[in-house]
Design brief:
With about 375 residues, the protein is an alpha+beta fold. Helix content is about 30%, strand content about 25%. It is elongated, with a radius of gyration of 23 Å. The two termini are about 40 Å apart. It comes from Actinomadura vinacea.
């Protein structure tokens, strides 16, 4: 007995490894991009590949519509690592209505949703919009794929009336999420023998005082910046590094911070304000490094025509139509920078993403496909 189209397609893509190589120069996502391009051309669509870096390629699939307007479907090709998985990462297994494998939830499941919805349109019926599917690299690291896509769209004059970004949302329409600013703070001291600590600055002690200040004074004040759907910004010290031996005074101690931002905050300005505040309290022996990760928050207008249209589709299908906010980031915030109303949607839950036994519920996989097809066939989305 043959599998339903979407389950078969997802299984085939799970079998293609596409682990994000982080800083290694490897064309990790390219075999999956090539698979998507071949599949698209075999289903009557146009496809193109474009290199982003180190042989890593985005894929764009275009299905021409009857009107001049374009709807963008975007998701990422890369997955996180497979270390410690308790299921075979590359051999999809279905058990109790769940499909297991790396990427089943984040984000090859949403990719299969988009592809099969487009295939249904290609087979016939109303097609009011040109649909562009973008499968991009590097979402799990520093977002180079979506930034390259934005540049390509600008060069080609592609201006979507709306975008659906594929991520696990349990079939909810996400219109808001937080951004982030991550940086490192290093305290320094002269070092020396631990039996003679008197009169010496201990960087570990300084770092502990900084961490206490951030937790007790800085972070609580962020509550005043709360936004609808996502709440307030946050700050957490996520890593502590320092010391070279049990009987040696450390010469340095480094804290890594994760500062989550909300709409209206510029992550670079957040960093400058934090740096200035810390250096005014600890002017000697403390360094605040430039951010090593910056991402932007998303806050799509819930009254935009695209959002209202998506809500109508969800309501008609019997799903919750109210917009939702989440704390983690997606490619949607970058797409929204180009004045494209953007929502995040897909099967599966973020709680299953990156997990040792990653899975997606099959009923949500099929339901998400039906929702996306209905959206793409709906007149008057703008």
């Amino acid at each position: 007995m043959s599998l339903p189209e979407i389950e078969d397609l997802l299984g085939r893509m799970i079998r293609i490894p596409s682990v994000n190589p982080r800083e290694r120069a490897e064309p990790a996502e390219t075999p999956l991009a090539e698979f998507v391009a071949d599949w698209a051309e075999g289903n009557g669509m146009r496809a193109s590949l474009s290199e982003v870096a180190d042989g890593r390629r985005n894929v764009l699939v275009t299905l021409d519509g009857d009107g001049a307007e374009t709807v963008l479907l975007e998701t990422h090709l890369d997955t996180v690592e497979t270390d410690g998985m308790t299921v075979d990462p590359y051999e999809p297994v279905v058990k109790d209505g769940l499909l297991y494998g790396r990427g089943s939830c984040d984000a090859k499941g949403p990719l299969a949703v988009f592809m099969t919805a487009m295939a249904a349109l290609a087979r016939g019926g109303p097609r009011p919009y040109t649909v562009v599917l973008a499968g991009v690299v590097d979402e799990e690291h520093v977002y180079r794929g979506v930034q390259a896509m934005r540049r390509e769209f600008a060069e080609r004059g592609v201006a979507p009336i709306g975008a659906v970004v594929g991520e696990p949302t349990s079939l909810r329409m996400v219109t808001a999420h937080k951004g982030c600013m991550r940086c490192r703070i290093t305290a320094r001291g002269p070092g020396g023998h631990s039996s003679e600590p008197w009169g010496k600055t201990n960087p570990i002690t300084t770092a502990a005082r900084i961490a206490a200040y951030l937790a007790d004074e800085y972070a609580p004040a962020l509550d005043a910046l709360a936004r609808p759907l996502v709440g307030p910004p946050s700050l957490a010290v996520t890593m502590v590094e320092g010391g070279s031996g049990p009987n040696v005074l450390a010469e340095r101690a480094t804290l890594t911070l994760d500062r989550r931002t909300v709409a209206g905050e510029d992550p670079h300005e957040v960093w400058r304000e934090l740096r200035d505040r810390l250096l005014s309290r600890w002017p000697d022996g403390v360094e605040v490094a430039d951010p090593h990760v910056v991402d932007y928050a998303l806050e799509t207008d819930p009254d935009s025509a695209f959002v209202r249209g998506f809500a109508d589709v969800l309501r008609t299908a019997g799903h919750e139509p109210a917009p939702k906010g989440v704390g983690h980031g997606t490619d949607a915030s970058k797409i929204a920078m180009d004045a494209v109303p953007s929502v995040v949607f897909g099967p599966g839950a973020i709680a299953q993403a990156h997990m040792p036994a990653e899975f997606v519920p099959l009923d949500e996989l099929h339901a998400a496909r039906d929702v996306v097809e209905a959206l793409l066939r709906r007149e008057g989305t703008r």
